[in-house]
């Protein structure tokens, strides 16, 4: 992405959010499923017959996004992180384990669950948001990265 | 059609992540890190998504007896606030706060050529595997 496409205003944030909500509505309407990325992915790691194809199809669409954007609008996605490789591995392990153990991530609990006013999702979302804020703030205060 | 639609649903979700800036972990950390140059973007992404799904879902349920390609709507039945839910959310939160990647944005980064994105996704899948096989 180029600079003007990132954070000059909050409009792209809102618009992107509406697209995410619309995608969640589409999946609910077509397959009656909650659009939770951790669940859609992790249930392929121990696949159940008859409950595989829509997950693969959804994830394929998600994964080809950078290619589609590049070919259709020459949008180059920006990935910026100053986190070292070992730390990223630790973060990945925690995110993978935690989202499966706690039954959801930002999309499943945070978007779909909160919208449905699910008590579990509201509590989970407040918990992981608060924990993430605490972690990010402390880490960067201590190491000043 | 039942196979093509989820593909475009995933693509719409991915484009939403990119347009909102959430595919870039730097923008996520800018929201999570309260001591830095704070960016409220993520809150507005959540707002847009929650209002859209929150408004659309009841209408969808009222108008559609069942999903197009399934017999029923599959909604989580549990309502208990157990220790697993809370501890899972805490573990996820720590990992999210470290890297700025959660599962959706991590997966949308797989084909950007970012080595960091790939490394994160590989580790995330291992973490998921451990949890999936521990659960049963």
Task: Break the fold down into its secondary structure elements and pairings.
The complex is a heterodimer of chains A (145) and B (136).
Chain A: H1 11-31, H2 37-42, H3 53-63, H4 65-73, H5 85-101, H6 106-115, H7 119-142
Helix pairs in contact in A: 6-7
Chain B: H1 4-20, H2 25-32, H3 41-63, H4 83-99, H5 103-108, H6 115-135
InterPro entries (chain A): Sulf_transp_TsuA/YedE
Keywords (chain A): Cell inner membrane, Cell membrane, Membrane, Transmembrane, Transmembrane helix, Transport
Transmembrane segments (chain A): 6-28, 52-71, 83-101, 122-143
Architecture overview:
- The complex is a heterodimer of chains A (145) and B (136).
- Chain A has one domain.
- In chain A, 56% of the residues are buried.
- Chain A has 145 residues and is mostly helical.
- Chain A is built from seven helices and no strands.
- By secondary structure, chain B is an all-alpha fold.
- Chain B is 68% helix and 0% strand.
- The interface between A and B is large, with 107 and 114 residues.
Question: Structural class of the helix and strand makeup of chain A?
Answer: mainly alpha
Poorly predicted runs of chain A: 1-7
Query: Low-confidence stretches of chain B at least 5 residues in length (pLDDT < 50)?
Result: none
Percent of residues in beta strands of chain B = under 5%
Cα(first) to Cα(last) distance of chain A is 23 Å
State Rg of chain B.
17 Å
Count of helices of chain A?
7
Could you state the order of secondary-structure elements of chain B as H and E? HHHHHH
Main pleated sheet of chain A: none
What can be said about this structure in brief?
The complex is a heterodimer of chains A (145) and B (136). Chain A has seven helices and no strands.
